[in-house]
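Model it.
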Amino acid sequence: MKDKFFIDTNIFVYSFNQKDTDKKRKSQEIIKKALETRQGCISTQVIQEFVNVATRKFKTPMKISDLNLYLHEVLFPLCTAFVNFDIIEKALKIHDKYKFSYYDSTIISAALFTSSKILISEDFNENQKIENLTILNPFTV
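Modeled.
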């Protein structure tokens, strides 16, 4: 990937997956590339969703100290979109036009806000284009 890319929450969650080692490996590769190239980005929504899953839905919830370390080493450095009124208004337009859930629409809106060309997620239709954004599912390749 040469273009700027936005990473959805599920990629971070899968990077801790103990059952599906292929998804875990692919997710970890995406995150590593994002940090090394500085081409990957996320929004505050991704951070909030990850914290919720990591502390409430992981088989063994993350310890707060481990979570804080992950926040500082991985999530905070990638966060370039802070959900604001413009992102919310755009999300509502996306929600209305494409019929995605509001939260999925906010992810797409934040990806567009960061000028990302690619949204990496398994939650949407593969290769769907929304404005200048293409959705890629890394687990179907």
